[in-house]
């Protein structure tokens, strides 16, 4: 499995993903699920992927190929020249549909799950910062003030903390901590989600990825955060009133 | 869905279940999932059920019927005269298998899910306090010191807190709070789990249900606990070091 979370705040986007992919418990490997593109001063886009790896790799490869093709034919529409983030989400959705169509029959015959989901976040100059969740069928939804975050993959363990602390007004630094705490709870409770992690930040109206960081298993900062949260939770728990 | 949790401590058993059953989002009803039996001074048994309601009701009805039959034929083996808790788990498993066999063909034809799981906890005089998880196939596993709790139904939201605070040495009062906090996180994040709740405690070597309480949506104690936990979590979160 996978756990990816993207939080859309007034101040910007926080994106965090793990890197574990497994085909059964005995076949675990490491694949980055965060893919980012920048056009300096013009747009920054991050995709997070979950689900069948052959499908999500197919989507990313096709998106890259479209971008390469613009060297020959600048008229080709890509996520880097699309005229809105909404159109970017549509292109990802269309690409998803093409990859699904190509492989569905063969995969269905094998009984393989071909579900895949992609989080698409970013901003282009002239538009606002947006975050979309693209489904296997190519359709998508957008994050709004009522639900300012999306999770894909193993989302349940890490949802309670996000439900409690995230609003559109949450500062970027706090949301970064919330994403990490949400990931930490998931890592502790589910083996199919694993280190290292990929973290990215896109500040509103910056048109760039202002931070991109790989968090390795021995990352001291993440370790400190994880320990601090563990201690805080334990002491919060032990200070609860004995109402029963 | 459902959320039930049972925690086996040195000091006793804590059991907590919700009461929401749904056949689709538009068909929600209330069914108790906690069933208990006592033979004064001799044994106390609690069952928590999750999964297809027709299956779990079938299991409970058959177990009750076996008990009624002992009025006519005292030789009939039931969960109230079985000579060990292990045998009680076997009887529940055998009953599960019978109910599954009776309905499987028809349900398969309809494409209905017939999964069901039962937590079986309790103690009889002469034996130790034990906790089992019975699967749809009638097989079962037992809680041990390494894994002193079982969850059935929507278990993921409420697992992180249990993973962090529960050990066999946890006092009963603390475990009761942990079960409630685990339930509270689940209630907040998943609509298919709902109030009221049923709570039961079996103290080690007491051979009785020392506490049995229905927690209604307006329960002041549960409300206080929920608020206190929410505040504690929020302040724990806001006190986290800004490591990133």
From TrEMBL, chains A, B:
GO biological process: proteolysis
Tagged with keyword Hydrolase: yes
Keyword annotations from UniProtKB, A to Z: Hydrolase, Protease, Proteasome
InterPro entries according to UniProt: Ntn_hydrolases_N, UCP009120_prtse
Keyword NAD: no
GO molecular function: peptidase activity
Gene3D superfamilies for the chain: Glutamine Phosphoribosylpyrophosphate, subunit 1, domain 1
Protein name according to UniProt: Proteasome-type protease
Organism: Hoeflea poritis
């Amino acid at each position: 499995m996978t756990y990816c979370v993207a939080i859309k705040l007034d101040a910007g986007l926080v994106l965090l993903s793990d890197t574990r992919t497994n085909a059964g418990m005995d076949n675990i490997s490491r694949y980055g699920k965060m893919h980012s593109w920048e056009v300096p001063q013009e747009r920054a886009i991050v995709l997070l992927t979950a689900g069948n790896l052959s499908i999500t790799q197919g989507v990313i490869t096709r998106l890259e190929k479209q971008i390469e093709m613009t060297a020959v034919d600048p008229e080709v529409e890509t996520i880097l020249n699309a005229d809105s983030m909404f159109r970017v989400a549509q292109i990802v959705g269309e690409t998803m549909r093409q990859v699904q169509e190509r492989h569905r029959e063969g995969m269905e015959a094998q009984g393989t799950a071909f579900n895949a989901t992609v989080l698409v976040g970013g901003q282009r100059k002239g538009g606002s910062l947006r975050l979309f969740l693209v489904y296997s069928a190519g359709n998508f939804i957008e994050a709004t003030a009522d639900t300012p975050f999306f999770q894909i993959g193993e989302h349940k363990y890490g949802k309670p903390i996000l439900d409690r602390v995230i609003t559109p007004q949450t500062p970027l630094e706090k949301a970064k901590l919330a994403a990490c705490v949400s990931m930490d709870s998931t890592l502790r409770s589910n083996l199919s989600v694993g280190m290292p992690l990929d973290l990215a930040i896109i500040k509103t109206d910056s048109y760039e990825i202002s931070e991109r960081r790989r968090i390795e298993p021995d990352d001291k900062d993440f370790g400190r955060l994880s320990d601090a949260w563990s201690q805080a939770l334990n002491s919060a728990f032990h200070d609860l009133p004995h109402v029963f």
